[in-house]
Design brief:
- The chain is α/β, with parallel strands linked by helices.
- The chain has 2 domains: 103 residues, Leucine Dehydrogenase, chain A, domain 1 (Rossmann fold, 3-Layer(aba) Sandwich); 132 residues, NAD(P)-binding Rossmann-like Domain (Rossmann fold), CATH 3.40.50.
- The strands form 3 sheets. A 6-stranded parallel beta sheet has the order 1-11-8-7-5-6. A 3-stranded parallel beta sheet has the order 3-2-4, with helices on both faces.
- The longest helix has 21 residues.
Length: 298
Amino acid sequence: MSTETTQTKILDGRATAASIKADLARRVETLKAHGITPGLGTVLVGEDPASQSYVAGKHRDCEQVGIHSIQVQLPESITEDELLAQLKRLNDDDACTGYIVQLPLPKHLDTQRILEAIAPEKDADGLHPMNLGRLVANVNEPVTSPLPCTPKGCIDLLEHYGIDLAGKHVVVVGRGVTIGRPIGLLLTRRAVNATVTLCHTGTRSLKEHLAAADVVVAAAGVKHMIDPADLAPGVVVLDVGVTREVDPETGKAQIYGDVAPGIEQVASWYSPNPGGVGPMTRVELLQNVVLSAEQQLS
């Protein structure tokens, strides 16, 4: 790691996602020329405003690249058996190439049971136990089954800006199933070849690990938990964690990342939050749907 400070550059997720969407639109046109129209389904239970906003954004993305949208809106009072019946319908629907169940679910529903009911080949989030197992076993190269969206989005964002991860020491903060655990698997594949340290609430001397990092992936979901003063000059930082706080004056939710202000004084590259990895997560969802549809061509 260089000890000289450099001008911080932004890892712009919105611009990168737009570039990927342009490529996806071309791939979708090719699929349609072969009589195949990719379809993304979303299952939304209840009326949580944040979840509604996310789902609406995903369907706007679909429209931009020519993917068919299938929206399933269900009441918060739905029973588990009723929800499972809806998932079976999507599993059997040829027009649905892949789908997601928007989280969080109401507390009376068994989230793990619901997620495991998704057909693995239609798992647009890439988080079904079978797909994660294929990632662990490294039997998915070349990629033929869905990969976890946010971890894949992190790597694609870095690659878009020409940041080579081979041999780099990547410190991941957070061990959640959506980011922390799977990104370590992706980063240590031979195609990427990074060395990963996974930190969590049981980690001793987090500051020592952060100081030794070439790249930091902050994915704990704790507002401003990482102080830029603890990072080495020239570090690359992906701020992935999200904390929402409601402004008492406006009533609107404000999004905060895991990295405290001042990162631009230390990092060589960093992803803002919002506007960094978030747009990449959404575009990776589309990537998984298109990839699944392309399997029909082989």
